Structure formats: C-alpha cells, structure tokens
C-alpha cells in the first residue's frame, strides 16, 4: 500500500462551474476513489483560486467588495461538489491564511536562494489569462494568443523568477520520466516550448492589490504575488507546507495533478521549476484533459450555451453524468456534450446492459429460489464465463493507470455482456422445467457474481448506484470486498437478493432545454451515429447533403431523415439455420436481436449461402416489418443484402456488434 495525493486545478471564482470544471473534478474524484478501493491512503484536494486582477475586476463589475464576491462564488463551487458527493479531503481557498503564509514562506526561500531578483518589466499582459506574452506571440500585434482578448501594455517594477536557469533540468526531467505528462502525446508540445527558450518569469505585480503580499522582510509592500505562483503553491500549502511537515512528508509528491490542456504549461514547466527551487520533489504525473464543447460548439456565456452541471444532474442524475463524461471521451481528447449522445448512453449502457441484468437476476431468483443465491455450482457449469470475466477484470487496472477511463468502462461492460449472454445461452427457465434446477441456479449465481464484480470496479465512477446494487446483492463495496472478489477472485457465497426499484428508467425525451440554435431532436430511440455528432456533425452532414442532393434528385426520391428512421434496422446474430424443405431459395433462420428477442426469419438466400455457414455470423435485419408467411412459415424480419449480376451477398457489420444494436 502507498499514499496517494490527487488534485484538481483550483477554480477561478469569477463565474459559476460548468461541465468542463465538473469533468476535471469527476476524473480526479474517480481516481481518488479507485485508489482508496485498492487500499491506498489517498488525499484528494480541490478548491478555488481567488486572487489576481481578473477576480478584482469581476468583483467591481458586480459592485461587491472583492473578498465578499470571492466568498460567494467559492461557496457555489464547494456546495456543488458537496451536493455531488465529491470525496475531497480538503477544499482549499487561496485566501486562506495558512495558504498565504505558506506562499510567503516559499517566496522567501526562492529569494534567499537567489532564484528571485528585482528588475523592470514591460510587456503585453492578458488579464483574462493572467499572463504576459511576447509581442511575437500576439495575434495582430495586440490580441492574446490563448483567449483572443485584447492585451494591454504593462510596465512595472517586478520581481523575477530565474526560470531560464531551469531549462536543462526540466528537459532532463522529461527525458528521465516519460510518464510525467499524460497523455504522453502532449509531452512534445511542452518540450518544444522549453527548447524554444525560457525567459525569466515576472512573479509580482504592482498594478493592483488583490493578491498575497510579498514577505514583509523584503520591505516592499507595493508588490503582490503573481496569481499563478500563488495558485500553484496551493498543492503544497494544502498539505501543510510550512505548517505541517508530517502531512507534507506523508503525501508529497503528488501522484497526479489533473488539469485542462490550456493550463498544462503552467503545471509542466513553471510548477516543476518552482519546486526544484524549493528543493521539493516533483509531482509524479500531470494528467492533461481536453475541452468540452456543447453540440460541437465552444461553450460561452455570450452564446448562452454553457452546460451547467447542476442543470444536468437535476434532469438526469449526477452519476449518469459522471458515467457519460468518463465513457464518452478518450482522456486527453476534446469531448462533446449533446443530450442525444447522453440519452443514448443512459438507455443502451445503463438501462439495457446494467439495469437489465439486475432486473433479470431479481426476477429469476424470485421465481426459482425465493431470492436465494448460492454460488456452489458456478465453477462446475461456468468456467468459460468465469475465465472471460477474469480476463476483462485483469485488464482494468492498466487502463486506469493510463487514465483511459473510456477503455476501462468499455472493457468493464464486457462483464454485462458476459452476464446477459450467459442467460440467453443457458436458458435457466428451460433448465428449471427440465429438472436441472442446479444448473439454472448456477447460472443465476454466475450472473449475480458477474454483476457484483462489475459493480466493485464501477464504484469509483458511480459510487451511489453501485452501492445500491451491492445492497441488493447483499454485500458492501470496500477494500475488503475488492481484495476478496477482484484480487483473490472469490465468489459471493450464499446470500439473499433484496428487491430494488429499477435503477435506470429509459429516457424517452430530452429532459433539459436544448442549447439555443441546436438542431431538433431525432425521433425517439433513433439516437445514433449521425445524429449523435451534434450540431457540428449535422452541419457537416447538411453540407454533405447539399452536394449529394443535386445528384440524388435525379436518382431517388428524397426523404427526410425522420422517414429513414421509421425503419428499425438492427444487428442480428444467427443462432440457427436450416433449409426449407421443397424450396430452392429459402432458408429458415433463428436470429437473435438481443436478449429476449429471437426472430424467425425466412430468407431467399439458399442459392448463395449454406445453412451451416451462416450460424454464428451477423446480419443486418429490418426489425419492424409486419410479420409475413412464406411457404407456411412465419417470417419476422428481413435481412439486408446486395444483389447484382455476380450474385448476392449479405450486408453485415464490419466488426462484431452486440445483437440488437440499432443501425443508423
Ligand atoms: N485557476 C486556474 C487553475 C489554477 S491551478 C493551480 C484556472 N481556473 S479555471 O477555472 O479557469 O479553469 C479550471 C479548469 O477548468 C482548467 O483545468 C481548465 O482547463 C478547465 N476548463 C475550463 N473550461 C473547460 C472546458 N470547456 N472543458 C474542459 N475543461 C475546461 O485555470
């Protein structure tokens, strides 16, 4: 066991939290919960960044004293994280006395060491980014290269940090620690920045007063500290730098600082240089995530399209939002929030896969064994499923270490498919009828264990939901059950299922107002690829359509997208196939369109496919055709196929997909 220290950035108190802030907080919270689950003592820090010109100006705009303004906004962040049950150990504010004392102490240490000196600074300053930029980097000689806002020329006396002296040491650190910046693909941009030459950094300001004063012993009270020096130091003052050496010793260096890609430079260049100057070890990792857009567009107050986490959680629940955000994007890449994609995930992953498995377990155990589950025969009948489950479970830690929560969840979802497929394949209802109760009960116990293990590993992402499922399965999720069931691979023994209400009701309609100018929603249940791309995707799609239209106008009758979606197309898996006697053309197939939906399809493909060759393959099925009789046999669907002079071939998904997955 080791100690872990995980941090979020501290959020500026000039506005309310949006889903971008929620995302960093969710990943950090997930990681902290994951470490605790594994038994590592974990300190998790979040908080607010309250000094600097930007905050001072925001307070003035609101006609409020700066501290009062900062208090109010800081409280909105804290309340939000409390309501979301974020498991932080400390919520730091840069206006806390201890923090300010620690910052002064650090400044003095750097000064005494000769790393901070006094000079003059003249440069272009962006108040919004609280950063100076050299003229060469400005857009049109005036605008900030990061945020596009106008910069102003500031000339002032300033203390400087000798950043230039740390170039080589920083480069050596990146070389020796290839995992320092995650994802690794971002390391080059940092290295190139450093190789381009580092200038000494101005670390005090005299043009405003809302900041930490430099140490009294320097007798220079017109200087306040540069907000980024003040802010970055929060990571050590929170542990007790200067006040609590034991806690510092226990948790420093940080395991991971989670940050957005826009503030990677501050964390991967300035912060390590400050720490080297303070003779403190460097954090083990900086995890830089991408940015969230809404329906393909940058969120901004002026567009009125900002997604507020509380609005989403009121409509859909915070755990669904956590799941969606961590499942939807590869860590490091930008992500898009659209209600369509969100609803799709809730319905297909949570309601269909997870929720259904629990409902089926409750239903079967009620019918077969008065809610009693006994794992005694699981190993006898289900080694195949147990092996598949263990392979998936064993891969999870690697994904979490790489912060690839989307792959982690994708792999974890294999368990639900193993569970649901086991029920379909082993048909416990038939076994019960055929006096094979022990086999039927073993299947129910298998899937209960699959669900229990999946929930342990899902708990860092959905702590409350998984606790409810664990309660239904009569166990608790904690380090002990993690050790028993995940590390030692044990099964739950004899227990009784408790009934719980359905956890994930399907969402049929968007539950929040759409962003202004957003495209109308597609028809229910037709949330899919193209529609999911959001506004940007649709813009692309409509451009594509324009080009296509002039040609299509001659070839086909054009239809609306809604008309296309009136046809329900699904992926099917052929479970069985046989020739129809006396027919030259027909084969009779049993096609699975998901757990409880097996269709008989009579298809005219006998001249092109043998019955045996089709079993186990996948097909595309029109699932909402009225059933029809062919040679006296009911056909409950139609297969998609292409026929030309060379013969006929079936249309199939390029890669295996779950039976029942909608096509569109
Ligand atoms: N106060 C500094 C951080 C100091 S850490 C020592 C700051 N604050 S911030 O409130 O502007 O941003 C906090 C975090 O939110 C940053 O990591 C930033 O990348 C992230 N995000 C802001 N907008 C975002 C999105 N639209 N999407 C995802 N994250 C975004 O920077």
Describe the model:
It is a single chain. This protein is an alpha/beta fold. Among the domains are: 337-496, Isoleucyl-tRNA Synthetase, Domain 1 (Orthogonal Bundle), CATH 1.10.730; 524-564, no CATH class; 569-650, Nucleic acid-binding proteins (OB fold (Dihydrolipoamide Acetyltransferase, E2P)). The protein is 44% helix and 17% strand. The protein has 24 helices and 27 strands. Strands 1, 2, 3, 4, 8, 12 and 13 form a 7-stranded parallel beta sheet that branches. A 5-stranded antiparallel beta sheet has the order 21-20-19-22-25. A 4-stranded antiparallel beta sheet has the order 6-5-7-9. Strand 19 and strand 20 form a beta hairpin. Helix 18 runs antiparallel to helix 19 (463-472). Bound molecules: 5'-O-[(L-methionyl)-sulphamoyl]adenosine (MSP). Residues 9-12, 20-21, 23-24, 49, 231-232, 234, 259-260, 262-263, 291-292, 299 line the site of 5'-O-[(L-methionyl)-sulphamoyl]adenosine. 5'-O-[(L-methionyl)-sulphamoyl]adenosine binds next to strand 2, helix 1, helix 7 and strand 12.
Kindly provide the radius of gyration, computed on alpha-carbon positions and rounded to a whole number of angstroms: 30 Å
- Which architecture of the domain at 337-496 would the CATH scheme give at its second level? Orthogonal Bundle
Number of helices: 24
CATH class of the domain at 337-496: Mainly Alpha
Helix content: 40-55%
Spatial shape = elongated
Structural class: alpha/beta
CATH topology of the domain at 337-496: Isoleucyl-tRNA Synthetase, Domain 1
- What distance lies between the first and last C-alpha atoms, to the nearest angstrom? 48 Å
Are there runs of 5+ residues with pLDDT below 50, and where?
520-557
Question: How is the biggest beta sheet arranged?
Answer: 7 strands, parallel
Count of strand segments: 27
Would you identify the CATH H-level superfamily of the domain at 337-496?
Answer: Isoleucyl-tRNA Synthetase, Domain 1
Ligands, deduplicated: 5'-O-[(L-methionyl)-sulphamoyl]adenosine
Strand content: 15-25%
């Amino acid at each position: 066991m080791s100690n872990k220290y995980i941090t979020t950035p501290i959020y500026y108190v000039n506005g309310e939290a949006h889903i971008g802030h929620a995302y960093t907080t969710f990943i950090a919270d997930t990681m902290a919960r994951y470490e605790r689950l594994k038994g590592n003592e974990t300190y998790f820090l979040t908080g607010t960044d309250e000094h600097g010109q930007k905050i001072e100006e925001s307070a003035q705009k609101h006609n409020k004293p700066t501290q009062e303004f900062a208090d109010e906004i800081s409280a909105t962040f804290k309340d939000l994280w409390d309501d979301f049950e974020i498991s932080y150990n400390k919520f730091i504010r840069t206006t806390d006395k201890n923090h300010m004392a620690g910052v002064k102490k650090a400044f003095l240490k750097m000064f005494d060491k000769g790393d901070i000196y006094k000079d003059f600074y003249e440069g272009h300053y962006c108040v919004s980014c609280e950063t100076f930029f050299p003229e060469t980097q400005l857009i049109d000689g005036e605008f900030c290269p990061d945020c596009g806002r106008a910069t102003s020329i500031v000339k002032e006396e300033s203390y400087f940090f000798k950043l230039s002296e740390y170039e080589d040491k920083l480069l050596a650190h990146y070389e020796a620690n290839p995992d320092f910046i995650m994802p690794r693909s971002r390391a080059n941009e940092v290295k190139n920045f450093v190789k381009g030459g580092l200038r000494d950094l101005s670390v005090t300001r005299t043009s405003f007063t809302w900041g930490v004063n430099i140490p009294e012993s320097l007798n220079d009270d017109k200087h306040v500290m540069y907000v980024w020096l003040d802010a970055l130091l929060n990571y050590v003052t929170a542990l007790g730098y200067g006040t609590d050496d034991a806690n510092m010793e226990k948790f420093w260096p940080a395991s991971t600082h989670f940050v957005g890609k826009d503030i990677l430079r501050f964390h991967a260049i300035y912060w390590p240089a400050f720490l080297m100057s303070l003779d403190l070890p460097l954090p083990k990792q900086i995890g830089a995530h991408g940015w969230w857009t809404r329906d393909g567009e940058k969120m901004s107050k002026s567009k009125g399209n900002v997604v507020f986490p509380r609005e989403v959680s009121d409509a859909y629940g915070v755990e669904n939002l956590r799941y969606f955000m961590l499942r939807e994007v590869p860590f490091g890449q930008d992500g898009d929030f659209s209600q369509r994609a969100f609803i799709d995930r809730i319905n297909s992953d949570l309601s269909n896969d997870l929720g259904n498995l629990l409902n089926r377990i409750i239903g079967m155990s009620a019918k077969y064994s008065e809610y009693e589950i006994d794992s005694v025969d699981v190993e006898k009948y289900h080694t195949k499923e147990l092996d598949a489950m263990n392979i998936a479970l064993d891969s999870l830690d690697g994904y979490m270490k790489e912060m690839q929560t989307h792959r982690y969840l994708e792999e974890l979802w294999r368990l639900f498919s193993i569970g649901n497929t086991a029920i379909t394949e082993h048909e416990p209802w038939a076994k019960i009828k055929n006096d094979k109760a022990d086999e039927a009960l073993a299947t129910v116990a298998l899937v209960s264990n699959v669900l229990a293990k999946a929930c342990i590993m899902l708990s860092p992402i959905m702590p409350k939901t998984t606790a409810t499922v664990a309660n239904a399965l009569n166990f608790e999720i904690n380090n002990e059950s993690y050790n028993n069931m995940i590390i030692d691979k044990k099964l739950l023994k004899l227990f009784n299922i408790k009934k719980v209400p359905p956890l994930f009701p399907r969402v049929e309609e968007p539950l929040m107002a759409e962003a202004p100018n957003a495209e109308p929603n597609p028809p229910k249940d037709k949330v899919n690829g193209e529609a999911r791309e959001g506004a940007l995707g649709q813009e692309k799609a409509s451009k594509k359509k324009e080009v296509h239209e002039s040609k299509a106008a001659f070839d086909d009758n054009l239809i609306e997208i809604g008309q296309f979606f009136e046809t329900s197309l699904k992926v099917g898996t052929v479970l069985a196939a046989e020739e129809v006697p006396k027919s030259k053309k027909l084969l009779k197939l049993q096609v699975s369109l998901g757990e409880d939906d097996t269709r008989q399809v009579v298809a005219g493909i006998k001249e092109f496919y043998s019955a045996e060759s089709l079993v186990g393959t996948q097909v595309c099925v029109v699932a909402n055709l009225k059933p029809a009789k062919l040679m006296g046999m009911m056909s409950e669907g139609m297969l998609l196929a292409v026929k030309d002079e060379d013969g006929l071939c079936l249309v199939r998904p390029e890669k295996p997909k779950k039976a029942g997955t909608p096509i569109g």
